[in-house]
Design brief:
Length: about 290
Amino acid sequence: MFIRPFDYERAEHLADACDLLRAHGEAAKVIAGGQSLMALVNLGLAQPEVVIDISRAAGYRDCVAADGYLTVGALTTHARLASDPVAARCQPLLGAAAGQIGNARVRSRGTLGGSLAHSDPAAELPLVMVALGASYELTDGRQTRVARAEEFHLGFLTTQLADDELITAVSVPVLGPGWGWGFEEFSRRDGDFALAAAAVLVRIADGIIVESRVAVGAVGDRPVRLADVEISLSGAAPADAAARVGPLRGIRPVGDAGASADYRAHLCRVLVTRAIAQASARSLEAA
């Protein structure tokens, strides 16, 4: 694919990038690691006139735990997130999902903020953010606002971000006592986009599941929580949890060259039950 020439701007601060976005409007695109934007450019699906590079912007690369929350800067790479000891201690589901992204090259270049802003429904990080009840800090360089993950992802490659806004950080609750987590995805080959994926959190007390969060990805135009599954798990013994998972009502799989809609739906249910089993086992270990 022939790439149309574009102008290049480097922003030393995210506020400068927001100013450039306002100045150039829809003709401008932001690049950090380039693992989302350049794929679209190479396919001819994006043809920016101006590319604004924020990869060297100061800050936004730390994982910090305080007041019951883990806050991760938007420029944190997937590789850093997968290996960071603070993230591993406070919310290991994040690192587990980040470690499944693409391949080593993608993980070393791609960033948390880039993945969330790109909002591919098959991507790992938007899925786990929905499962965790994360919140995103957004800025236009003049003021900031906070968006809940479940409300931020609107559809395929579509988010709440205004044309002059960037994600600066993400906050997720620290994994509390008694909680366990599970993450499962399936793809044809290592590094391919998932055909279906599931992220689960479970808390067991007195031998039964008392709380759960279940989310799935790659089976609709955005990651979604499965409230019906969460309700069905309430009060279940871990050994009986899989039997409580019936047909998944909250998903809208679409058939394509990778898999039929029916196969994706079946695969999603299998992955949900496996992730529930993982989360339950970890919850019992933590008790």
